[in-house]
Amino acid sequence: MQKKIAALALAGLAGAACAADLRVGLNPAYEPFESKTASGEIVGFDVDIANALCEQIKRRCVFVESEWDSIIPGLQAKKFDVIVSSMSITPERARVVDFTKRYYKTPSAIVVKKSVKYDGPASLKGMKIGVLKASTQEKWALGELKPAGVTVVPYQSQNQVYLDIQAGRIDGTVADKVEVNGGFLRKPEGKDYGYAGPDQYDAKYYGEGIGIALRKGQGDLKKQLNEAIDAIRANGTYARIAKKYFDFDPYGK
């Protein structure tokens, strides 16, 4: 009987530990927000923020990789509990998932060769511009570049976009400026490339910033995460993490 009770107690402890895990979906191909090291470790700003929020709500983050265009279906299928993967808060997405308040807001921009004379979307007519499939940047490119005669090419990951730019298969991309600064433009293969046109903040395409996505009906978890975002902003944790990756406050105005 004592062995049976002990076994039940251990099972209860194991169940409690499992319940304490927060499964976090992300697409680790978006440096410096989330990427993989040579040893396979997932690192980045989103990862550090997620871990800080998990610490606040007394849970343990367990990261689950997903392709970007299947990340919302993965959330809905309960493959993970939340998405912390630089997802913009947009009305279209908010119809199928809930969002916390934003945890950062940065602009996007067109990236092409520095030799390109940019004077509006029509000046890129005939070019091929790669974008992350199902991203807000794809939405902007389809709305603003495609009508001007630009071919918009979707990819499963932003890393694939950069590989095809390097190979000469496409002419550029539309991407988050912080991601481009932290990755492609600082590498030798990006030395001939730069930004074309103004920073892009248009809420019609980009929403109101980057938030954490949850399934509908997770009101308690949403409240906990919103309070945790406020807490790490107030106690200096957010600033410490941001300083590790950026020379400005990515939270935005």
Task: Write down the oligomeric state.
Answer: single chain
Shape: globular
The average pLDDT value, as a whole number, equals 92
Main beta-sheet annotation: 5 strands, mixed
Computed Rg: 20 Å
Q: What is the end-to-end distance?
A: 62 Å
Number of strands: 12
User: Given the helix and strand composition, which structural class is it?
Assistant: alpha/beta
User: What share of the residues does DSSP label as strand, in percent?
Assistant: 15-25%
Q: In what order do the strands lie side by side in the largest sheet?
A: 4-1-5-12-6
Helix-strand pattern: HEEEHEHEHEEEHEHEHEHEHH
Give the proportion of residues in helices: 25-40%
Enumerate how many helices there are, as a single number. 10
Uncertain residue segments: 1-18
Describe the structure.
- The chain has helices at about 1-20, 45-55, 70-75, 90-95, 135-145, 160-165, 175-180, 205, 220-235, 235-245, and strands spanning about 20-25, 35, 40-45, 60-65, 80-90, 100, 110-115, 130, 150-155, 170-175, 195-200, 210-215.
- With about 250 residues, the chain is an alpha/beta fold.
- α2 (about 45-55) packs antiparallel against α10.
- The longest helix has 19 residues, at about 1-20.
- The N and C termini lie far apart (about 60 Å).
Question: Keywords for this structure?
Answer:
disordered N terminus; 38% helix; 12 strands; five-stranded mixed β-sheet; 10 helices; alpha/beta; globular; 253 residues
